[in-house]
Amino acid sequence: MADGDPPPRPALRWRSPLRGLWLTSVLGSVLLVALPIVTITGLLSYIAYGPQFGQAIPGDVGWLKLPTFDWPTDPSWLYRLNQGVHVGLGLILIPIVLAKLWSVIPRLFAWPPARSLAQLLERASLVMLVGGILFEIITGVLNIQYDYIFGFSFYTAHYYGAWVFIAGFVIHLAIKLPRMWSGIRSMSMRDVVRTNRKNTRPEPYEPDGLVAADPDPATISRRGALALVGGGALFIAVITAGQTIGGITRQAALLLPRGLSRGSGPNDFAVNRTAAAARITPDLTGEKWRLTLTGGPKPVVLDRATLTAMTQHTARLPIACVEGWSTTETWTGVPLRELARLAGVPEPKSAFVRSVEPRGAFNRATLQANQVMHPDSLLALRVNDADLSPDHGFPARIIVPALPGVHNTKWVGSIDFRSR
Question: What is the dihedral sign for C-alpha 41, 43, 46, 47?
């Protein structure tokens, strides 16, 4: 080495005999199927929030704007399924993502980082892919647990982070798909399953590949590694799925963000935002509370006694939160379409619902025409044969089939039925 030359870059010691094209291709094939499902359900959740009404976050996304449509109200469990898959599958994939990153980590630290334009493009896609997916996982997990320690809007960051990941995923897939296919075919899964640790051998060495030049003896077989990763994914599924499936499985949902019990008796089910957190006081929801209906020739003002005297409808409907948890309860109240007729707008194009909650990003919501006119869409007064508790929206709340949970507005103060 000549005087003044920089010292050679030290070689990192990557010597696992398991690393190679086959293992990373198998892990990659699982992610190739599953990650698009997580991505699509996430984008569908954004559409379900109603960006056409300006109530999806972020609002103005420029050329990243998604095509919008009226979010369906049937089946009633549609949003529950969408978010259960989005959050549940996203969590289940964490061990597989980490295993995939472990399998390719020598390439992440390769030096020089690029020797050609094609390699430069590959490295750029890796930065977007790896950075994007880690960002989505970390912020997503923190959001599920309501730990907003990152100091920025989760919704905005998660949306743009998703597009960074999508771009990296598409570019990387276009570059690596042929090699992944050849990697899967390079070894037989049957042979891998039959091979124990003692007989585990490294794949053929390639100078620019993932196989170590001087691998250490195997401390686990490939089948053991796959079982370890699969077991981790299964464990997360067990402690997560109950928050969506419900029933007896909810007791195993250790990651349920709002706990296993909220309230008492008929009102003992999950609460996203309590009355105390929303600063709801008895003055706002007591005897002086009134519901104001507008949009017709003149406002219609109703007290709770008048609402309870009207024809009641009962429906068993889920509430599903963006964080993945959901619960199905039996709701009783006045159909929204009856209130629309009472207001003088028998065929509304939309309805703007406002809560008496003084402040909050979700103290209002705009409902589509199909959401107002569905026979099971209610201004709910009771749940499970009992009056709503303050935490669940007493004196009245919205409940609409397949609607994102936060748009089932609680402590409703007014509804403006709009004819255009």
Answer: negative
Residue type, 128: M
264-314, pLDDT tens digit by residue?
Answer: 678 888 888 899 999 999 999 999 999 999 999 999 999 999 999 999 999
What is the Cα–Cα distance from 130 to 21, expressed in whole angstroms?
A: 18
- The residue written with tokens 């997916």 in the block is 133
Who's near 380: CB < 8 A, 6+ residues apart?
331, 332, 333, 388, 393, 396, 397, 398, 399
The whole-angstrom separation of Cα 356 and Cα 41 is 32
- Tell me the per-residue pLDDT of 308-340, one tens digit each, with 9 for 90 and over: 999 999 999 999 998 888 999 999 999 999 999
**Nearest-5° angle of CA 367, CA 288, CA 356?**
35
Among 159, 172, 88, 89, CA closest to 130: 172
Q: In which element (H, E) is residue 236 found?
A: helix 222-238
pTM for the whole structure: 0.91
The Cα 299–Cα 288 span in angstroms is 17
C-beta of residue 178 within 8 angstroms of C-beta of residue 32? no
